[in-house]
Amino acid sequence: MTTQTISGPHAVLQAQARWRAAEIAFWLATLLPFVLAPDYLVLASQVAIAALFVLSLDLILGFSGIISLGHAAYFGVGAYTAGLVSVHGWGEPLSGLVIAGIASGIWGYVTSFIIARFRHLALIMITLGLGLLLQEAANAASWLTGGFDGLQGIHTWPLFGKIDFDLYGYTAYSYALAVLFVVFVAARRIIHSPFGLALRGIRENGARMPAIGASTHSHIRTIYTIAAVIAGLAGALLSQTTETVSLEALGFQRSADVLVMLILGGAGRLYGGLIGAVVYMVARDQFSGLNPQFWYFWIGLLLIGVVMFLPNGILGGLAFAAERLKAAARKRPPVSAP
Amino acid sequence: MSATATSAAALSTRGVNKRFGSLVVAADVEIDLPAGVRYALIGPNGAGKTTLINLMTGMLRPDAGRILLGDDDITALPPQARVRRGLVRTYQINSLFPHLSALESVTLAVCERRGVARTWWRPLTAYRDEVDEAYGILGTLNLAAVCHRPTRELAYGQQRLLEIALALAARPKVLLLDEPAAGVPRDESNDLFAAIAGLSRDITVLFIEHDMELVFRFASRVIVMVGGGVLTEGTPAEIAADERVRAVYLGERPREALR
User: Are the Cβ atoms of A198 and B88 closer than 8 angstroms?
Assistant: First the structure.
């Protein structure tokens, strides 16, 4: 405590925001698939896209306490927008990505006015309802979306006009990973800003916020729009790298999956969602290889196990274990022999 | 009660009425709080004291009547807008941010007041003035040493102080304290009220308190509420001598009046 008084108020806050060695190690590890598993780069690109999508959900659920069971709506708007832009003759990936992000952001901003007014169970129902509504609208508008058959004829041009999207997913993974990293750095910046602090305030005690002069609704609208943009980017990446979009892109299943990934990894920790995406996607790949019919059985088992034994997710459990080890090391006298 | 004091009043209510169904919780409440005064609001349980704070701060809408902050009618403003104009409250039951540290909580309140809580492209650590101000407020309430602890790990008395720190961060002109010492042991509640008494004289303070000893020690004037209405108002000595007040307390809560 004395050290805190001496160091004043700033040092601790600065330490919280600093990049840690484990973080740098994590991002270096994302390059490993290029070397260790070049046959799995397609899977790796799917993982990166899922991770981006989970990151988006973490911003609203993990950091702001806004529960959503319909987050795929924004993923879907991004996916269809990128697909449609390509189908109508413009396959340039980066500009397609930006257009998709804008489209999903607009939809996010519009719906945020409803979202900001509700909490808890009502919010689950509303996000679920909005998601189902959009899915049915996309189904009905088959002249635009291709309906149940999905959007046909997407072609993604080479990246920067030079780098082709190859069959092995080399470009796809590089592209998705680069977007994930850039967005992650931005998200990390948001979390460590005054606005990020306000979001945590809303999560911790939304009812108290007006009593310190905060307009919670406008904060929620802002972060919900940002999250929608990120979800849309993830959707766009999927349709650009796979050159297909179907209704499944904005279905309930995808909303549930992304929630599961976040809970598995640990909400409100930025990296939790990324780890959750890796575990979930790899587990799905492995389990569906074992038995294509019953892989959700294993996912269910994994989910129950994690929630029962690691209530703060995998990353929460790791952080807890690390703290325990540190505490034990501190207690133990530095004498080695008994 | 005296409608003449309007211009000098920091906060006034005019004919404020509120009912929940058939239960009248505010009946024609007319109050003027002159600037800089330390007011106590007393009355038996269910008299409508907290409800009145909720009405003044906009957590509840009155069925009729007006709330004036200085000369401005703020009846239609939402709670956060009233806070920004300097009408700030604390809560009887701690309403804090459990996983934020004391410093983070107060810094957040400072950022909201200064209008920088919307910036998401600059790191919090760049706002050194805001952090310093929050740290200063915590220092005046003896919380500097524990400012990095998560709120939920603070002792109960420290959490009560943090309630006040959050309110101070909003730079109140009028501070409404809903039982600031609720649940705090006697010796600590004295310290807590000493901190309140030490607040700048620019701040008008109204506090709800059941402990008559604290009321008589720290309030310069006392308002007595019964059944949603204002029974009487006066100096502590006047209130102590008032037969009606005695009757209310003797009738309903004998122990408290005799304490």
Answer: no
Spell out the domain ranges in chain B.
Answer: 18-258
**CATH class in words for B18-258:** alpha beta
Q: pLDDT class for B12, splitting at 50, 70, 90?
A: very high
A312 CA: distance to closest CA in chain B (Å): 14
Model confidence pLDDT, tens digit, residues B87-111: 999 998 889 999 999 999 999 999 9
| C-alpha torsion sign, points A255, A257, A260, A266 | negative
Selecting from B83, B125, B127 the residue whose C-beta is nearest the C-beta of A212 gives B83
Give the start-to-end residue ranges of the domains of chain A: 39-251
**Residue in A9, A192, A194 nearest the CB of B135:** A9
Provide the token pair at A67. Answer: 């529960």
- Is B193's pLDDT higher than 90? no
State the 10-residue block means of pLDDT for chain A, 338 residues long. Answer: 57 90 94 92 96 98 95 97 93 95 98 94 95 93 86 88 85 96 97 96 94 94 98 97 92 94 93 95 87 80 89 88 86 54
Residue A60's nearest CA partner among A130, A123, A121 is A123
Question: Is some CB atom of chain B closer than 8 A to the CB atom of A195?
Answer: yes
Cβ-Cβ contacts under 8 Å, A212 against chain B: 83, 108-109, 112-113, 166, 169-170
Q: B119 touching A, CB under 8 A?
A: yes
Beta-carbon separation of A205 and B95 below 8 A: yes
Q: How confident is the model at residue B124 (pLDDT cuts 50, 70, 90)?
A: very high
Residues A211, B91: C-beta atoms closer than 8 Å: yes
Q: How many CB atoms lie within 10 A of CB A207?
A: 12
Instruction: Evaluate if residue B135 carries a pLDDT over 90.
Output: yes
- Whether B120 sits inside 8 A of A9 (CB atoms) is no
In whole angstroms, what separates CA B184 from the centre of its chain?
A: 16
**Which positions in chain A touch B112 (Cβ < 8 Å)?**
198, 212-214
- Of A314, A271, A270, A51, which Cα lies nearest the Cα of A322? A314
Ramachandran assignment for A260, one of left (phi > 0), alpha (psi -120 to 50 degrees), beta (any other):
alpha
Residue B188 has pLDDT above 60, yes or no: yes
Contact by Cβ (8 Å): B207, B52: no
| Under 8 Å between Cβ of B219 and B207 | yes
Do residue B95 and residue A207 have CB atoms under 8 angstroms apart? yes
Provide the pLDDT confidence category of residue B257 given band limits of 50, 70 and 90. very low
| Among A254, A255, A271, A273, residue whose Cα is nearest residue A263 | A273
What DSSP assignment string belongs to A22-90?
Answer: HHHHHHHHTTHHHHH-GGGHHHHHHHHHHHHHHHHHIIIIITT----S-THHHHHHHHHHHHHHHHTT-
Tens of pLDDT, residues B198-243: 888 899 999 999 888 888 888 999 999 998 999 999 999 898 888 8
Does A192 contact chain B (CB < 8 Å)?
yes
Beta bridge partner(s), residue B41: B208, B223
Please, which residues bridge with residue B222 across strands?
B40, B234
Q: What interface predicted TM-score (ipTM) does this complex get?
A: 0.88
Q: Which of B97, B151, B158, B171 is the best residue to mutate to test the A interface, defined by the most A CB atoms within 10 Å of its own CB?
A: B97
